[in-house]
Amino acid sequence: MATEETVQLSEAHAPHQASIDAFDSVLSSVKHELVKLRHTHDKHEPEYFRAAKDLSDHDLASFSASDLESVRVGQSAYGLHLFGKVKIPALDNAYIHVRIFGSAKEGTDGSSTDEREYKLHSIHTEEVVKDDGDHVYRAIFGKDDELDWFET
Predict the structure, then answer these.
(1) What separation, in Å, do the N-terminal and C-terminal C-alpha atoms of the chain show?
(2) Structure pTM?
(3) What phi-psi label fits residue 107: left (phi over 0), alpha (psi between -120 and 50 degrees) or beta?
(4) Strand pairing of 95-104 and 80-87?
(5) How far apart are CA 4 and CA 93, in angstroms?
(6) Is 68 exposed, middle or buried (0-12, 13-18, 19+ CB in 10 A)?
(7) 17-25 and 27-44 are packed helices; what angle lies between their axes, rounded to 10 degrees?
(8) 3 CB neighbour count, 10 Å cutoff
(9) How far is the C-alpha of 8 from the C-alpha of 104, rounded, in Å?
(10) Which pLDDT score is estimated for 1?
(11) How confident is the model at residue 120, as a pLDDT?
(12) How much is the pLDDT for 110?
């Protein structure tokens, strides 16, 4: 299993065309899962999406591949791990963090971009426990929030 300790991610940088293409190939899945995630969390912990509480589902998911602003990429024995910061155009200073996995298409070694297929691994949600025991939840991040390794 790929972990933060076993995969060396690049420094955050503007996406190259291959990353934009990878993101574009899973764009509909990202939008669908984001809206689904919001509805799930709104039932139990609406704070995750508090920053976007006034947005419709359509506006929340109104981003395109051109809104992918920053990426970090790492390679493992399993494939390519791409972490991306995506701007939500309908809000100021609002981003989601996505994780995409790229693997070799059947019958190829995956060494070139056209030999890879991508799937959405996860959209980052964060739960922080403060010193006083209070929990803080979020799925909407700011421009200055680091794009770090995440599982969820």
Answers:
(1) 15
(2) 0.93
(3) left
(4) antiparallel
(5) 27
(6) buried
(7) 60
(8) 9
(9) 19
(10) 78
(11) 98
(12) 82
